Amino acid sequence: MGSIDVWSQMTTKRMSQAPWLATLQRWTDQTSEQMLPTVETTLSAMDAANIDISLLSAWHGPQGSLISNEEVSTQIDAAPDRFRGLATVDLMDPMQAVRDIRRWVDGEKFVGARVVPWLWNLPPNDRRYYPVYAACVDAGVPFCTQIGHTGPLLRSETGRPIPYLEDVFLDFPELVIVGGHVGFPWIDELISLTIKFPNFFIDTSAYAVHRLPTNFVDYMKGIGSSRVMFGTNWPMLSPARCLEKLDALNLTQKQKDAFLFGNARRVFKL
């Protein structure tokens, strides 16, 4: 069975030219033009690493739409057996955000919603997220977000797990949350929250697996084996690049299968 990439996107030109993306372009040695994947190049990258399904993210920020739900829907239609979507919302228009989740997130084509806190400079316990959480609970889908430090030159504090995500879990005990980008440097906080709250899951997007923090890898081999999912943050990193040194982690076959596809299939009901 092939892997599942739970965080990818087909970056639009308006997103690739956002000033805050410059640091990621420097780190990955890419120009804004190189960060414009197509359906064909995305499928080729997936095939090169035996990725069965990629979850494509829509993006919306204070400046407006970066990748719209409509654009992601069209991308999925080009390869419906290989792509699923994560919808976006405008936090400043809460009722429209609820309507958008009800419209787009059906649990089949769109299997969740994603909001990136650093883009809004709003931690996830801000009141403007709460209608989105309620809509995700009603739809029976995960809410996906970013945890840990911020690659772009914007504040990292919004990605700290405690107290921000802890407040959310206490207020919405039914909500399933998937935190992307590992959570460094707050790995201990991350681990403690996954022990405390059974609906908290993590993905490894934005990391080649050989660059994962040692304590995070130890977590994957222990109590985190049922909580961690594979992600890339494509086109920032390719699936092949992320997985090229997977064997060096020394995961058991059961741990490897859970990481690569088992946990994602369960959480996103794929």
Q: Domains counted in the coordinates: how many?
A: 1
Rg value: 17 Å
Largest sheet: 8 strands, parallel
Pattern of helices and strands = EHHHEEEHEHEHHEHEHEHEHH
Which regions have little confidence, pLDDT < 50, spanning 5+ residues? none
Structural class: alpha/beta
Mean pLDDT: 95
Percent of residues in β-strands: 15-25%
How many individual β-strands? Answer: 10
The CATH first-level class comes to Alpha Beta
Give the name of the CATH superfamily.
Metal-dependent hydrolases
Write a structural description.
The chain has helices at residues 13-16, 22-27, 39-48, 69-78, 94-104, 117-120, 130-139, 161-171, 187-196, 214-221, 239-243, 253-268, and strands at residues 3-8, 51-57, 59-61, 64-67, 83-87, 110-114, 143-146, 177-180, 200-203, 228-229. It is built from 12 helices and 10 strands. It has a single domain (3-268), classed as Metal-dependent hydrolases (TIM Barrel, Alpha-Beta Barrel), CATH 3.20.20.140. Helix 5 (94-104) packs parallel to helix 7. The two termini are 13 Å apart. The strands form 2 sheets. The chain has an 8-stranded parallel β-sheet, sandwiched between helices. It has a two-stranded antiparallel ribbon with strand order 3-4. By secondary structure, the chain is of the alpha/beta class.
Give keywords:
single chain, 270 residues, alpha/beta, TIM Barrel, two-stranded antiparallel ribbon, 39% helix, 16% strand
Give a short summary of the structure:
The chain has 270 residues and is of the alpha/beta class. The protein is built from twelve helices and ten strands. It has helices spanning 13-16, 22-27, 39-48, 69-78, 94-104, 117-120, 130-139, 161-171, 187-196, 214-221, 239-243, 253-268; strands at 3-8, 51-57, 59-61, 64-67, 83-87, 110-114, 143-146, 177-180, 200-203, 228-229.
